[in-house]
TrEMBL record:
Pfam families: M20_dimer, Peptidase_M20. It comes from Halospeciosus flavus. Its cofactor is Zn(2+). InterPro entries: ArgE/DapE_CS (IPR001261), Bact_exopeptidase_dim_dom (IPR036264), Peptidase_M20 (IPR002933), Peptidase_M20_dimer (IPR011650), Peptidase_M20A (IPR050072). The keyword Zinc applies. Keywords: Hydrolase, Metal-binding, Zinc. Gene3D superfamilies: 3.30.70.360, Zn peptidases. SUPFAM superfamilies: Bacterial exopeptidase dimerisation domain, Zn-dependent exopeptidases. This is M20 family metallopeptidase. Residues 199-300 form the Peptidase M20 dimerisation domain. GO terms for molecular function: hydrolase activity; metal ion binding. It comes from the Archaea. Belongs to the peptidase M20A family.
């Protein structure tokens, strides 16, 4: 390349990055309602001369959703060099009611930028956008390619944007991935930026059907109460033993809800129990089903129980993954952290699931999560630390240039 990687980070304009986060936060974009922010991201890259494209996302069977990702490629000079997928989502959760100010204000105070989605993950989106533009500068001669992907519906039920990337074979052309989700705030252990998160647990969602026998509510012993049985089962599942992993920790079980019953004076004959099941490597769908069935067998309930899983698009499951610390991408990002912050990076693992699971497990890409810290994600008062947004942008520019040179 014609410039030294360490000088690229010096080009990052911190005020511009923070201003871009504000612009993004001020666009309301809950999942399934991302058209406006998709247009913004597309036009931003178009103005930067990067030839973006809209990548259609369609799911008709379960959601009826139609939307689009934004792709922005940066072409390197060596076809044999690696291609890096840089991934960020544009959507947020629904605006929560408890905000005491405008949830779309983008207000900055005391080094914090406030707004729904500020930390999760419009700050990471802005960092990835600016980093991509800087790596595409005319005097930067990368050997490898960058494919920036701004995806929809990460916060929704199925992660349809990144799912579509995989279904359409776009990830087949990539060798590794970086996702700019907020890292430290959602890490399994206490880490501080610069931090590289190298894996995540996976997730299944039990959809359990419980059938009892109806009777008059004044004579409950003449029936079998499906809701009561589901409550007993929920308690037992919450105490179920799960596997351990040296990096990802333990699996977990969390009952989420019971739906059924409701008649004025009748013993409920049917209900459904929803249970979250975070998993580590080795806890496959078969294993997870057998674990739950064993719990049911031990309880010897009068009710009939059928163990199933939430329905969804074929293949849209969050598998666990771990990226090797010795992978060249990890080394390049670590060097980038040292060069831009003067500190060794901390290593950690994500506590929950997201598009990185699709990339790290389904697509089989070594995947690293790098993002700015903040607090109150998905809640009122969400904010991101502005200094960290700038630091992460600089780390990305430096580290990715090293990986792709």
């Amino acid at each position: 390349m014609t410039v030294d990687p360490s000088t690229l980070a010096d080009r990052v304009d911190g005020d511009e990055v923070v201003s871009l986060v504000q612009d993004l936060v001020r666009i309301e974009s809950p999942y399934f309602e991302e058209d406006e922010i998709v247009d913004f991201v597309f036009e931003w890259f178009d103005d930067a001369g990067l030839d973006p494209e809209r990548h259609p996302v369609v799911e008709s069977a379960y959601t009826g959703y139609e939307g689009a990702n934004v792709l922005a490629p940066v072409e390197g000079s060596d076809p044999d060099a690696p291609t890096l997928l840089l991934n960020a989502h544009v959507d947020t959760v629904e605006l929560v009611d408890e905000w005491e100010e405008d949830p779309l204000s983008g207000r900055v105070a005391d080094g914090k930028l406030y707004g729904q989605g500020a930390c999760d993950m419009k700050a990471g989106l802005a960092a990835a956008m600016v980093a991509t533009r800087e790596l595409a500068a005319p005097d930067v001669d990368l050997a490898g390619d960058v494919l920036f992907t701004a995806v929809v519906d990460e916060e929704g039920p199925y992660g349809l944007g990144t799912d579509q990337l995989i279904r359409d074979g776009i990830t087949d052309e990539c060798d590794a991935a970086v996702v700019t989700e907020p890292g430290p705030v959602l890490a399994q252990s206490d880490v501080e930026n610069p931090a590289l998160l190298l894996g995540a647990r996976g997730r299944f969602l039990y959809d359990i059907e419980v059938r009892g026998e109806a009777a008059h509510g004044s004579q409950p012993r003449k029936g079998t109460n499906a809701v009561a049985a589901a409550g007993v089962l929920a308690d037992a599942l919450a105490e179920m033993e799960t596997a351990d992993h040296p990096d990802l920790g333990s699996g977990s079980v969390c009952p989420l809800g019971i739906e059924g019953g409701g008649e004025t004076l009748s013993v409920p004959e049917h209900c459904r129990l929803s249970v979250d099941r975070h998993v580590v490597p080795g806890e496959t769908e078969t294993v997870v089903r057998e674990q739950a069935e064993a719990v049911v067998a031990d309880l010897d309930l009068d009710a009939e129980v059928s163990i199933g899983f939430r329905e969804g698009p074929e293949g849209a499951r969050y598998g666990p993954y771990v990226t090797d610390r010795d992978h060249p991408l990890v080394g390049a990002l670590a060097d980038g952290a040292r060069a831009t912050t003067g500190r060794d990076p901390e290593f950690g693992y994500f506590a929950s699931v997201g598009d990185f699971n699709y990339l790290g497990d389904r697509a089989g890409l070594p995947t690293v999560i790098v993002g700015p810290d903040g607090a109150n994600i998905h809640g009122a008062g969400e904010y991101v630390d502005t200094d960290e947004v700038v630091e992460v942008t600089e780390l990305l520019v430096d580290g990715l240039a090293r990986y792709l040179q």
